[in-house]
Amino acid sequence: MKIAVFGNIHRGDILAHIRLFSDFFKQKRVDMLLHRDLYDYAVSQGVLPQAEIIDNDEFMADFAISIGGDGTFLSTAAHIGSKAIPIVGINTGRLGFLADVPVENMLPAIEALLDNNYYLEERTLLAVETSDGTKFDYPFALNEVSVLKQDSSSMISINTHLNGEAIHTYQADGLLVSTPTGSTAYSMSVGGPLVVPQAQNFLLSPVASHSLNVRPLVVPDNWVIDLEVRSRSHCYQISLDGRTLILDQTTKLRITKADFVVKIVKQQNQTFFDTLKKKLMWGMDKRN
Question: Which positions are catalytic?
Fold first, then answer.
């Protein structure tokens, strides 16, 4: 078995995790792969991992481990792309909706993985195309595509079509198009609804709307979303899970459902609502 390991080199405990996994995988006769950035960082700190180096995204593995927060998980998903390698998220960050395995439970979680004692959740992604052919390094998003004003002053206008029908021109600081996975991320912070990961929907949530009667909208995930931006600065910012570009306002966007999914490893008896209760204290009554 081969397991690829990705991690956030800015976390102070990442070297301890690399050592731990290196020893554990050697004992279990598992081949470990380390992303080049993580490997080079370990070597620079005097640690020489026994691992195959991942130099590009052409690697193959049976599973991937993401050590960090949700940002690290999103980066790991981008490296994996359409290869359908299931990801285990080890949480060394804060909230951790994607990276939801606590550090203290990481070895039992990997033991369960080796014992086939887990289940998989498939998560939908967004795919983005531009009218002028502008290319993204990775034109997919697991959480959200955010279209935002590029300057710090005036709002932008976002003409929005769904399946070819003009539905609204958002006057706002921006617009988020989110997956159910992203409903607990940026979308939640602007008042978007919580959506279970298995729902087949996308969310359109305005950022600081200049109209009080405009609310987040839920649409089927097989619809085509077309966006056209107008800005006083003649440009706007687009971000795919935090990977940002500045585009000219003449560049139109088309957002659709990607033709592949991200597979997330979940522990038995762990559900989305368990995570909500633990991370957001959802449904907790503090009156007693």
Answer: 70
